[in-house]
Amino acid sequence: MGVPVRVVLVDDHEMILAGLTAMLAGFAGRVRVVGQAGTSADAARLVAALRPDVVLLDVRLGPESGLDVCRTLTGLAPESRVVFLSVYDDEQYVFEALRAGAGGYLLKRVDGPELVRRLEEVARGEVVVDSTLAGRMAVTAARLRRGEFWPGADRGLTQRESEVLSLLVGGLSNKAIAARLVVSEETVKSHLRTLYRKLAVADRSAAVALALREGLYR
User: Fold this and answer.
1) pLDDT digits (tens, 9 = 90+) for 132-170
2) In terms of C-beta density within 10 A (0-12 exposed, 13-18 middle, 19 or more buried), how is residue 190 classed?
3) How far is 157 from 99, CA to CA, in rounded Å?
4) In sequence order, what are the beta bridge partners of 48?
5) Contacts of 124 (CB under 8 A, 6+ apart)
6) What is the DSSP code (8-state) at residue 53?
7) Rounded distance between C-alpha atoms, residue 123 and residue 145, angstroms
8) Who contacts 156 (Cβ-Cβ below 8 Å, separation ≥6)?
9) Model-level pTM?
10) Which residues have CB under 8 Å from 131's CB, separation 6+?
11) Rounded-to-integer distance, Cα 214 and Cα 156, Å
């Protein structure tokens, strides 16, 4: 029998942490939970100290994005693989997760035997994705190659977020964008916050620079 995969669990719901711990306890010879965290700060301290093989991470930690947490953890311990465990079964979340440096994306409906198998695969260096999502990702990737999507779709931008980004590149203010799209300025600001997160930029000028550099506009 090989050495068990060392896992740190990160989720802001205690019931989820308890349930995962109980589930994995039945596979002690293959997987060992070495730590649990409910916040990004605790996760960072644990991962830096323990250097686990795998970090099983929720997509959201309270108000924080799991994508940002993933980037932090992989920066602290590049040898530790991050796997998202999520309720969101949208392939765009998977694209974002992998772009953030994750080694996998699984859904919370996964059962014990499959979860253990997937953790072992990730620890060996493989990238794992829920089988349902993997099929949809393949279709999406094929459509992207045929140019059937809007600029930025491969980065997880919705069609409306892509429109907002193109109008940013055109130099329009929030008020002008709202008028063009017939929405409120608050809606525009909400779109901007989301696309900044998806593009991993901090502000308007950085988003425009990235869009110009990579052609993410019409």
Assistant:
1) 776 666 666 655 565 556 788 778 788 889 889 999 988
2) middle
3) 13
4) none
5) none
6) S
7) 31
8) 92, 93, 95, 96, 99, 198
9) 0.66
10) none
11) 15
